[in-house]
Amino acid sequence: MWKTVLDFVSGIFKPATELIDELHTSEEEKLQLRNSLVKLQNEVTLNQLNLEGQLVDARSKVAVVELTGASWLQRNWRPITMLIFVGLIVLDTLNWLPGPNKLSPQFMSLVKIGLGGYVIGRSFEKAGPAIARSLKDSG
């Protein structure tokens, strides 16, 4: 994830860096421009990484709230949703769904995204409390 952020920010600044190399000016001015550009790129990268960190923190807080929620439905909505999806896929495979249409490709894409999110979410549920304690202790 972090590599993607860094590649994205570098890609934004690459055309400007190439433009500086093409300028017909002194090497000293080119160096000053490059230094200013690198400083700006570092600031943007740091801001982007901070935002990504806040996003991870927010997701972990949501997971903790779901795990510690008082409502049975709040704690179990994801497994219920995935069981319904699997049931629909089985019914579709056996041609037991009413109507002539099969499940749409969009539905199958939704299931793939949901299953990926469910697996990652369940993994995070197991590791989330330890990560939250670690972040709390270090902060």
Keywords:
139 residues, mainly alpha, 4 helices, 0% strand
Explained architecture:
- With 139 residues, this protein is mostly helical.
- Helix 3 (72-93) packs antiparallel against helix 4 (105-138).
- The chain has helices at residues 2-22, 27-68, 72-93, 105-138.
- The protein is built from four helices and no strands.
- It folds into two domains: 1-56; 69-139.
- The mean pLDDT is 80.
Helices and strands, with pairings:
Blueprint: H1 2-22, H2 27-68, H3 72-93, H4 105-138
Helix pairs in contact: 1-2, 2-4, 3-4
Topology as a string of helices (H) and strands (E) = HHHH
Helix content: over 70%
Total number of distinct structural domains? 2
Low-confidence spans:
none
Inertia-based shape: elongated
Oligomer: single chain
Mean pLDDT reading:
80
Distance between the termini: 22 Å
Describe the sheet with the most strands: none
Would you count the extended β strands for me?
0
- Please compute the radius of gyration using only Cα atoms: 24 Å
**Number of continuous helical runs:** 4
As a percent range, the share of strand residues is under 5%
Structural class: mainly alpha
What is this structure, in a nutshell?
The chain has 139 residues and is mostly helical. The chain is built from four helices and no strands.
